[in-house]
Amino acid sequence: MAAPEHASRQDAADRPAAPAPAAPRHPRPVAVITGASAGIGAATAVELARSGHDLLLVARRRGRLADVAARASDAAGRPVRAELLQLDVAEPSSAARILDAAEHAFGRFDVVYANAGYGMERSMHAMGIGELRAMFETNFFSSVELCNEAARRLLAARRTGHLVMCSSCVAKFTLPDFGAYSASKAAQAHVARAMAYELRPHGIMVSSVHPVTTATEFFDVVRDGLPAGARQQYAIHDMSKFFVQRPEKVARAIARSIGKPRTEIWTSLPTRIAAGAITAFPWLLDVAVALSARKQPRAR
User: What structural domains does the chain harbor?
Assistant: First the structure.
């Protein structure tokens, strides 16, 4: 016996509304970049726009994102479509919100670059557990969850893509007062490599990026986080120019690697060789740190 008409209407009213349809598939590849308002993130946005990508730019400072989008269009010589998302990657559910924004605006994403992160110059015994957890939340957990969520969506759609995490050269070794930062970047590198092996059979590439000292806001943030009266031990203006690179160099290395099965992206061959030597012979770093301490006594 057929159900009464009013019951059918009521059932329909009780059912949740269907989700809004996704945007039509965008004709250009789309890159999602966190921490895109400055430094390596901004430079990578410009470089990927030059190589043909449109962009979803994510950062806490929306005003700066608009400037990066304008630079991207100028560099590409075309009107780059750039969607801007003001968001702190450490917020709950940020990964889903970021990828939802990409799929809503473009109907797709092809490259996800988890670049957001920060450093702190602090002895481990002087760091509060809350500070340590906050650093890992931004540097490690947010990047892993973003790449995990991207992988799940690509697998469900049977699509390929490239997931990138911004690690560091100090993922392979550490220095005094940089233990927490080095640990968060080492954790990123290990997870990225495992994901690369797991996802490569599905056509999804995963890479970690290992820059050396880069001329960005990073060291300004480190300085601002020092305790009152403490002197910055690793000030970029005190470093030899031989060991400092521009963010554009990192961005070009990333752009060249997109779509290629490179588990690690390095921008300094000497540093990469040194990291390998330190891994094989840890005493080399012991000697280097001891010599550095003699030349420049630490003010703590």
Answer: 23-119+129-270 (3.40.50.720)
Cα–Cα distance between 140 and 84 in angstroms, integer?
23
Say which residue the tokens 């400072």 belong to.
61
Cα radius of gyration rounded to whole Å, the chain: 22
> Which residues, other chains included, contact 71 with Cβ-Cβ below 8 Å and sequence gap of 6+?
42, 45, 46
Instruction: Name the DSSP class of 138.
Output: I
Token pair listed for 228 = 């009152």
Distance of CA 78 to the CA centre of its chain: 26
How far apart, in whole angstroms, are the C-alpha atoms of residue 216 and residue 213? 9
pTM score above 0.90: no
Closest by alpha carbon to 108, among 22, 217, 11? 22
Burial class of residue 253 (count of CB atoms within 10 Å of its CB; 0-12, 13-18, 19+): buried
Between β-strands 111-114 and 161-166, what pairing exists: parallel, antiparallel or unpaired?
A: parallel
* Catalytic-labelled residue, pool 113, 181, 197, 234: 181
Residue in the structure block whose two tokens are 């890159």: 31
Beta-carbon neighbour count of residue 165 at 10 Å? 25
With the C-alpha atoms ordered 25, 30, 36, 37, is the resulting torsion angle positive or negative? negative
Q: Is 181 a catalytic residue?
A: yes
Q: What distance separates the 2 farthest-apart alpha carbons in the chain?
A: 92
Each residue's pLDDT tens digit, 125-164: 999 999 999 999 999 999 999 999 999 999 999 999 999 9
β-strand pairing of 54-59 with 30-34: parallel
Determine the Cα angle at 243 with ends 288 and 262, to 5°. 100
Give tens-digit pLDDT for 18-57: 444 556 677 899 999 999 999 999 999 999 999 999 999 9
Q: Contact 71/83 with Cβ under 8 angstroms?
A: no
Residue 96's contacts (CB-CB under 8 Å, 6 or more residues apart) are 149
